[in-house]
Amino acid sequence: MNTSRYLPTESGAGNDRLRKPLPFNEFILKIHSRCNLACDYCYMYEMADQSWRAQPGTMSVETVESTCRSISEHIATHAIPAVGVVLHGGEPLLVGHRTLNAIAMKLHEHLAPLAEVRLGIQTNGVLLDEEFLRILRRWHIKIGVSVDGRAADHDRHRKYRNGKGSYVDVESGLEILRRPEHRSLFSGILSVIDVAHDPVGTYLSLASFDPPAIDFLLPHGNWSGPPPARGDDPQLTPYADWLISVFDVWYGAEGAPRIRLFADIIETMLGGEVASETVGLAPVRLAVVETNGSIEQVDALKSTFPGATELGLRARRDPLSEALRHPAIVARQTGVDALSPVCRKCPIGLVCGGGQYTHRFKEGSGGSGFLNPSVYCPDLLKLISHILRHVGSELSPWVVPGDS
């Protein structure tokens, strides 16, 4: 199996991980493969991989059953004490009330006797109603909602297929979720950054919903398909500048929601290990089960090239442990030895961790696959250096490069 796209040829660490892989303990189940919105930045529908077109609309009963058995066997084989399962899409609430309840029941029947089970769902929020929330409360399913800021900013990208903005409906769903009887289910807000939007205004708009956490996401892109506003000039750092404006308002503010990116950077600086796709070197222990039952890598890789997520495995026939042998999974459990030479020499490389794996890709014979720094490298360097300076005395052993 060719590993050159994923691991440096001089690295021996991949072989160690191949012998002693870390089992999966986080799973994303794509229970519905279609969406009722047409967000213009979506990696599922608007970017390189268009495999969603061949997926069934809803995960079948048989696929749910085989997926539950596969996860159960993985838990038992590796004596995993706790697992997280996130119901995802497309838009997962499109499965409807009855199917969602049945899926949640199956997961509890199979997994709860073997391990602590943390269930979650990521939704665009427009379908949230009392019946869905009753079901989600029954099975203790935490709810993350995607919102991109103020109404006009949100509606700029997150529209229905007829061009109508979705903010009013998302806001309505969030108001139901924030009622006292449902409030404990609210896990946070996911928001994709647009540097054309006012950063502080965006943050304050999201914070007004009183979420436990906010997860700001960099738009998916890579060296072969750069994200918006990320040009070739390393002196220009639009995403760092945007995030620094938010950080300066957020840091030390009483009652502020947790901002995952900032919290993960600080935790990593202090020597902690966080399960983050964006920063750090913690081994990735996440597997995705697609609507048709295929076992795949993290779905954001669909933004790189067609077939990037595929492992050639199916839940109904293949043990999840087989996926641990794939070089892409090995690379993501290898740590610093799987980084590009540039990242291994970088003074903040252990914090940055090369940035999100998806954002490192460069295609072509000279592209080195994923063995590159993040396309957001200048932004990450500036942002992390800024946070290092502000956190200060706790991080005195660190050398802080440059000025923000």
The topology string of helices and strands comes to: HEHEHEHEHHEHEHEHEEEHHHH
Q: Which secondary-structure class do the elements indicate? A: alpha/beta
Which geometry do the CA atoms define?
A: globular
Low-confidence stretches: 11-18
What average pLDDT do the residues reach? 91
| Oligomer state of the chains in this structure | single chain
Work out the number of β strands: 10
Distance between the termini: 43 Å
What percent strand?
5-15%
Strand order of the largest sheet: 7-6-5-4-3-2-1-8-9-10
- Give the biggest sheet: 10 strands, mixed
Count up the helices: 13
| Helical content class | 25-40%
Radius of gyration: 21 Å
How would you sum up this structure, described in words?
It is a single chain. α2 links the parallel β1 (26-30) and β2 (82-88). Helices cover 32% and strands 13% of the residues. The chain has helices at residues 13-19, 61-78, 97-111, 130-138, 151-157, 167-177, 199-207, 238-250, 260-269, 327-331, 341-345, 349-352, 377-391, and strands at 26-30, 82-88, 116-123, 141-146, 186-192, 213-217, 258-259, 286-289, 294-296, 310-314. It has 404 residues and is α/β, with parallel strands linked by helices. Mean pLDDT is 91; it is low at 11-18. The chain has a 10-stranded mixed β-sheet with strand order 7-6-5-4-3-2-1-8-9-10.
